[in-house]
Design brief:
The chain is about 75% helix and about 0% strand. It is built from nine helices and no strands. α3 runs antiparallel to α5. The longest helix is centred in the middle third of the chain and has 28 residues. The protein is globular.
Length: about 240
């Protein structure tokens, strides 16, 4: 997040932040080994380590703040939790029994921490667009992975992927309609719908989530998310 302090010209904080991301990803990989059943389930986690490291280096090129701050550290921890769900994505059988309930608890923890980093940023005086973007990207990735897991575990059809991919579709649409790339004002409605979206997808991880109830819940969340995006798109398209 951007700090009120004078920007640092040294790349130290960015490099340290990237190194921390890599270190946490490696730690998550080792934890995933206990969850994963075989090398096939471990492969996507290792892929995430590589991808997150590359993304961190590229994304942090614009980092100007003098320090990382506690809020970004929490968001980084949420990213580590998100990576754990790549193991059951490769082996959907992990969503059953005690392991499934453990994953459900981790999903709720990641969701709860989403409300912590913003509060920490405001209290530390480090709230800014970079941290907000980082938080949003982790939310989007979490939603996409949970939606893919819901599909892979059979609690909903392939259409549930749209519940996790809608933001990415919105970003791609901005390539065609540049008006959609304009900044949006802060919105309680948007934040509430995001919590409902992630909360519903997290509930689909629980072993008790079975069709048709799981499908009805996913459809309701998808309808709410579609409505929220429609409101924002209408607002952007009507702006001059």
């Amino acid at each position: 997040m951007h700090s009120a302090e004078p920007p640092s010209r040294r790349p130290g904080p960015a490099l340290l932040f990237g190194a921390s991301a890599g270190g946490l990803a490696v730690a998550v990989t080792l934890a995933s080994r206990a969850l994963a059943d075989g090398a096939a389930a471990l492969a996507p986690v290792l892929g995430f380590v590589l991808a997150s490291g590359i993304a961190a280096v590229a994304f942090l090129q614009g980092w100007k703040a003098a320090r990382v701050g506690p809020a970004n550290a929490v968001t980084l921890g949420r990213l580590a939790l998100v990576s754990l769900f790549l193991a059951p994505l490769a082996d959907p059988g992990l969503t059953q029994g005690a392991t499934g309930w453990g994953l459900f608890a981790l999903a709720l923890l990641a969701l709860a921490l989403d409300g912590v980093d913003g509060s920490l940023a405001r209290r530390s005086g480090l709230a800014g667009p970079w941290g907000a973007r980082f938080d949003m990207e982790v939310d989007a990735l979490f939603g996409l992975i949970l939606a893919a897991l819901a599909w892979r575990s059979g609690v909903a059809g392939a259409w549930v992927l749209s519940l996790g991919a809608m933001r990415y579709l919105f970003v791609l649409s901005g390539r065609v309609w540049p008006r959609l790339t304009a900044p949006l004002p802060d919105s309680l409605r948007r934040k509430t719908v995001c919590v409902v979206q992630i909360g519903t997808l997290a509930a689909l991880v629980a072993p008790v989530a079975v069709p048709p109830g799981s499908q009805y819940a996913a459809l309701a969340a998808l309808g709410l998310l579609t409505w929220s995006f429609a409101v924002d798109i209408r607002w952007l398209m009507r702006r001059r």
